[in-house]
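Many introductory courses stop at the sequence. We go one step further.
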Amino acid sequence: MTWIPRRLPTAPSIGFARDIASTWLSGLFKAELTEFYISHLSPLWSGRQVKARVIDIVRESADCKSFILQPNSLWKGFRPGQFVMVTIEIDGVRQQRCYSLSSDWRDSQRIRITVKEKKDGHVSTWLHRNLQKQDVLLLSQAQGEFTAPTSLSESLLLIAAGSGITPIRAMLYELEERSRNLVLIYYARTQDELIFAEEIRTAAARSPDLTVHICYTAGGGDFHTQGGRFHPDQLKHLVPDYRERRTLVCGPEGLMQRLRQHWREEGIEARICFEDFTGAFSGLIKPEQTAPEQTASHRVIFERSACAVDADGRQSLLDVAESAGLHPHCGCRMGICHSCTARKRSGVVRNLLTGKASSGGSEEIQLCICVPITDVSLEV
């Protein structure tokens, strides 16, 4: 009998590791290729992305439109008050914005975002002037904690101003059926700038438990008219028992600051909740992975492009570069493919997937998952 020596197990060779990496990259490439072909067969189809087709466009006011969307099968629904991140491409640069859902949460086949065109609104203007029926948008899943209480053991006060009525409108679909004491105060400049005017009239007429006060800040109007901007005396007149109510607010920052201050002075700050988009994520980066201190402005220098911009610490360096008109290499946009790897010359960045801060020196980083936490210089 011939003795055949058995080879002892050894650590994986470089070639073996290379084979593993090659297999992984091959799988990733196949997934991306599959997604590419699926999207060309039908723009609405996807194996991993929520997409929605525009099936109707409704003008709500002179500067406001609602886009009625039909999402694909990956859509998981939403709770009234939540928002989605909308991703579009303008002149080759990806743009993302948050828009509240204003539709009835029970209809999973039709969702609605309502967009007010702003004078300096790059994305809102593009949507108003370019988005057509049958176009397809890329959406995130619904997110946000600005939702009505699941238990309605206490009465509610809803306060909205301008386009802040959009998440409140979604809440009304739910609340007017199960709330026994609901008050809405809605601020608008003029009657012509009301959003969902007919819907709100109908809801108020249908539900004896819903009281609506519309305040025209520029005067005029004849529907539950109350004059002027927010004032504590006005609030006491319209809703004498507001201190006992749970209050939900969505509107311009100035209004929210005044309400926050008044509730604080009354010692009832814990009973008021405000809409806030700052927890929105980019790509697959989750809100909790963004450090709370990342709100200061930092200078980002792109050396090769001879470009410098200010970044607020919430956008990834890839988004910052694209917003500045640059086109660095990128692929998955979620920290997997490393296509966007670039050299950082100086400064400190935070990796959103790990939460760790980099060193202050020269090193390779991934633009899509790093945000600046100091001034940063990049070889881009």
